[in-house]
Amino acid sequence: MKKPEKGKRNPLVAVVLIIIVLVWTIPTLGIFITSFRESSDIYGSGWWTVLPHKDNVKTGEIELPADTDPNKPVEIEGRTATFEQWRMGVEFEDGRMLRWFGNKRSRKIEVFEEKWVGFGANLTLKNYRDVLGGGMVEHTDSEGNIISRQGSNFADAVLNSIAVSIPATVIPILIAAFAAYAFAWMEFPGRRPLFIIVVALLVVPLQIALIPILRDYTGWGLNGTFVGMWLAHTGFGLPLAIYLLYNYISTLPRDIFESAYLDGATPFVTFVRLVLPLSIPALASFAIFQFLWVWNDYLVALVFLGDQNRVVTSALAAMVGEKGQDWHLLTSGAFMSMIIPLAVFFGLQRFFVRGLMAGSVKG
Amino acid sequence: MPGTDANLFPVFRRFSMSGNIDSNWNPFALAGLVVLTAVVLVGGFILLQTVQAYKVLMTVFAVVWGLLSTALLFFVLNAVAENMPRKIRSVSVAVVFAGPAVILLFWALVIPTLRTLRLSFMGAYAREYVGFSNYEFAFTDPIMLESFRNNLLWMIFGTSFCVIMGLVIAVLADKSSREKVFKSLIFMPMAISFVGAGVIWKFMYAYKGEGINVTEIGLLNAIVVAFGGEAQAWLLIPFWNNFFLIAIMIWLQTGYAMVIMSSAIKAIPGEINEAARVDGANSFIIFSRITVPYIMPTIITVTTTILIFSLKLFDIVRVMTGGNFGTNVIANEFYLRQFTYGNSGQASAIAIILLVVIVPVLLYNLKEFRRRRVLK
Amino acid sequence: MKKALLILLSLLLIASFVLVSCQKKEEPAAEEMTEKAADDPYAEVRGTVVTMSGPFTDNDALKFDESIKSFEEMTGIDIQYEGSKEFEASIGIAIEGGNPPDIVDFPQPGLLKNFVQKGYVIDLNKTLDMDKVKSNYIESWLDMATMDSPDGKIMAGIWGRVNGKSLVWYNKKEFDAAGYEVPETWEELVELQNTIVSDGDAAWAVGIESGAATGWAMTDWVEEMMLRTTSLENYDKWVEGELKFDSPEVRKAIQTVADIWFADGMVYGGRKSIATTSFGDAPKVMFEKPPKAWLHKQGNFITSFFPDNTVAGVDYDFFYLPSVDPAYGRPVLVAGDIYAMFNDRPEVRMVMQYFATGASVEGWVKVGGAISPHKDSELSWYTNEVDRKVAEVIQNATSVRFDGSDLMPGAVGAGSFWKEMTAYVSGSKSLDEALKAIDQSWPQ
């Protein structure tokens, strides 16, 4: 596989790329920083205020005499301005800014100066601790006893997510690869209409399948099981998988199969020994998307898995608090739940770039 | 040479079981294998259900069991099929290959779709038949009409931007030295769940309001204010708020387009580009005359999948605006009607319409397959 | 070669089986069988499990579990409650999927109505001792629990908890420091608003954003004003769908709200921020230093959104939203949780009967966070000042009416009413358009 000419490193390309990537990453960066802030700060000021910048820092207070009339221009330290102007802040030549604190009933003036406000103001790991620990829920009862209950362990949720995601990724790929190969290179009755149906199913919104499948699971005793999740995700992921894999497998050169056939291989052997290894780029591509999709899925887990073996998405949603008052926990939660999918992506990345023709016809 | 049919599925007539391929399975061994498979499947399942402790061990066991069971199943079924009498052997094998997929799909998707079709002709509580009135409603209700318009925006702009950006980035990254880093960063948003994305973009578009000493906490507003402008309630702006939401989808999905097209670009034999360069072509010409046509099948595939995704998308809209302020989309309306209002008739009609809308795209795709077969 | 591989595979699998099975298997939680006295009235139900689901979680779920403990110990029934986040979606799927919990807590009767009409809910008239139930609630509660099913009208559920909505919260410390006084009448409230504004601040903190449920806070305001500007009969008719939204009464109520919300400087952040500010974030500005707004009307659950270090009665307090027209008395808008039964078994019946008594919620009331609708509950149970005051407000109300949007059919109460009001407030629709759209959406 020929490497692209690296000699021609166009600086323009690099610049454009850097700009694009920067714009792309800023939202995520914002959340990353936010996840380290106190919940009260999150709502009070933008996340960029954590970075070093010049800001007004309060350096003092002035108490006005109680009989000051705010409805008339007020004189403070030699400057006269209306109440509205004082409220917005009046700048003095010596670099100070004086601002009226509160409304007309207060008599307090705050003095500000511009100073460099450094990094590390008020950062905390509390959000991460709360998410990892699952949040302790407690209250004091009528006798003054503190009753508490540990929320579900995040580590457990991660294990559950793994238990659901890995098979729910590999099984569809396996089944789809077999099917795609069959549709592409084998003959059987009804092949064409079946294929059209399969691809047409790409459109079906999975919500319409939830209730029928649930009914079946209840009858078969698969409710709340991992197997139920695997089957459901497989069913939902098969159309796309077959579509993508068919596109790929159907473009494999005919000669490969001819040589295999001449060597006396059965379809199964051809599939396992030739098609699968050759299709690794396509398999890896789909694996990434399916894994991400299953890992981040909330609705299917909610319906079929319930609360017994919570996955990461459900655990996070539960942490938000009944009416959503702890939504700041989502900032750290979102990040922690990103780690594993990203690891999977990096791990599988090298498979994307395998050559198509590498040593295939020679065998 | 096996016949080369110019139809959709080239076939090796004699590939199906020539005389000298014979299965070397003793029938008893085969039967034993089948039993073993059954035991593995059922036993493992029961085990998973009963043992609650040792989370890590059980997780590993669950994964291993799940994967091995499937592989084992295919292996065994194939062995059985290969042992079938010669006449039906090839069909049996094909059935084993495609069967599991087809059966699963019928159960998981086809039958529910048929059920939905039936429900779409019934009333809200599925007690009586109401003919086409649900469809009438879907095409005349102002909220639905607005949703159609919005979905059009999502389909056109969302898809094209995703594909174009993905292509551009794939091509550019291919030429750069830090390719992996760039691609990973563009891909990263895909790893974020919809809920996480909602939180992230809430911080981008946040609007605090007008008044004295109001500090904006949304990045977009902060930038606007820093340049002297007035903060806006972005998600409230009629019509344009759709684009702000589409931006989120682009942010999330471009990574997908980029990854697929990037591997397609890498599959272009280097000699072609070299030859073109020798002939004096510059990068742009290479891009438009060689690269794009070469990976056109991939572009079509990616476009199709993103198009379909944009039609089914509702999480973003639901989380950011709830469908208010003129941002409603069909899939969101479906969700509302089904689960919030409890009107399964109308919801089903909406789902069927979604399906029907996509048919032209699928037909086009199939035509493309056929065309490519013949030309190759 | 193939065979060898296969044998290896099978051995591997068997080995893993053996390994895992040899571990100590955890006993599935077995119910403790307490002594079976010969005349144990609960012998039949001892050891049984009743599953329950609802929208409350965390702290509230803990309090619930604590408060039913004594019943569980007495009867041996294990009540397993599981709260759910996406309650409305997941409960619909569970019920229609054929897998409903035994008892479900619905925060909105409208949602329950959907299921009653599809025939999933069990008629309590046929399963409970209705005399006992009827004697423990005032008429309105019983009326609101009666719904239409395929078999005629049934008693669909019983009320477990209520919360009051006609409450205006304020930052008590700052209020007192600034010298403001709690208003008793509407005129005093208007005067207070104007004073605050002329003092330079915004009077109200309002936010109606709530994701897919955006707008419900506005509908609460409209319902409050309906109760205060027109008769109870009209309110009831309106909720039933007989009084159209596009009518002078409803318009007047909405106008009363708009007079406050859209007036210059009256709401923090201005009109545009109302639809983009989340309902939970809105009151936070009251606790900033200095406070940027001073009044916030909301149900009593909002206290869990106040900053952690604030104390009820010291840092914050509430006053009753005054009546606008004294002719209509002091109505109180309430909401509540109604418990419905989906599976009929003796133990489920017993639990439902228990929920119809004040004792079922006594523990919760005592630790704060619940208000009981039962006649046999006592004001002395309330240890939380604010809760007791709310309970008192409800008790001393001349009339009590349930949150209208919760009673209306889902397509309106959780749909067009919310959405059209949001559109009106954000300015994207005129009032005429919004009202027409709501009327049109009323299911036939």
Description:
Chain A contains 14 helices and eight strands. Chain A folds into three domains: 1-50, no CATH class; 53-117; 154-352, MetI-like fold (Orthogonal Bundle), CATH 1.10.3720. Chain A has 363 residues and is α+β, with helices and mostly antiparallel strands. In chain A, 55% of the residues lie in helices and 12% in strands. In chain A, helix 5 (154-185) packs antiparallel against helix 11 (280-295) and helix 13 packs antiparallel against helix 14. In chain A, strand 2 (74-76) and strand 3 form a beta hairpin. In chain A, strands 1-6-5-4 form a four-stranded antiparallel β-sheet. In chain B, helix 5 runs parallel beside helix 9, helix 12 packs antiparallel against helix 15 and helix 14 packs antiparallel against helix 15. Chain B is built from 15 helices and no strands. Mean pLDDT of chain B is 82; it is low at 1-22. Chain B is mainly alpha-helical and 376 residues long. The radius of gyration of chain B is 27 Å and the shape is globular. Chain B has two domains: 13-99, no CATH class; 133-375, Orthogonal Bundle (MetI-like fold), CATH 1.10.3720.10. Chain C has 444 residues and is an alpha/beta fold. In chain C, helix 10 (216-229) crosses helix 12 (248-261), helix 10 packs across helix 18 and helix 18 (410-426) runs antiparallel to helix 19. Chain C has helices at residues 2-22, 58-75, 87-96, 109-117, 124-127, 130-135, 139-144, 172-178, 186-198, 216-229, 232-240, 248-261, 270-274, 346-355, 359-367, 385-395, 404-407, 410-426, 431-441; strands spanning 49-54, 78-83, 103-106, 146-149, 152-155, 158-164, 167-171, 296-297, 316-320, 331-341, 399-402. Chain C has two domains: 49-163 and 335-387, Periplasmic binding protein-like II (D-Maltodextrin-Binding Protein, domain 2, 3-Layer(aba) Sandwich), CATH 3.40.190; 165-333 and 403-441, D-Maltodextrin-Binding Protein, domain 2 (3-Layer(aba) Sandwich), CATH 3.40.190. Chain C is built from 19 helices and eleven strands. The chains are: A alpha+beta (363), B mainly alpha (376), C alpha/beta (444). At the A-B interface, helix 1, helix 2, helix 3, helix 5 and helix 6 of A face helix 1, helix 2, helix 3, helix 5 and helix 6 of B.
